[in-house]
Amino acid sequence: MSLIDRINEVVDKSIRPALQSHGGDVEVVSFDEESGVISARLQGACGTCPFAQETLRMQVEAVLKREIPEVSSVVRA
């Protein structure tokens, strides 16, 4: 399984359900394997929330870094 497939699997199983329960979602836009940086876009209620950056860091980045050591950070697309 490729890294992007692993990333999408973690997003689908561990991140997306929590965001969707609050009326939001997340889209993985790209992954740079050399730097380990994921570009992601929060959508729905999460995209316009004043805490969107915190959600991206505490929810999305923390889970992905814990599950996939090759991920160094998640930035807003």
TrEMBL record:
One of its GO terms (biological process) is iron-sulfur cluster assembly. It comes from the Bacteria. InterPro entries: FSCA_dom_sf, NIF_FeS_clus_asmbl_NifU_C. Pfam families: NifU. Gene3D superfamilies: Fe-S cluster assembly (FSCA). GO terms for molecular function: iron ion binding; iron-sulfur cluster binding. Residues 7-75 form the NIF system FeS cluster assembly NifU C-terminal domain. This is Nitrogen-fixing NifU domain protein. The lineage of its organism: Bacteria, Thermotogati, Synergistota, Synergistia, Synergistales.
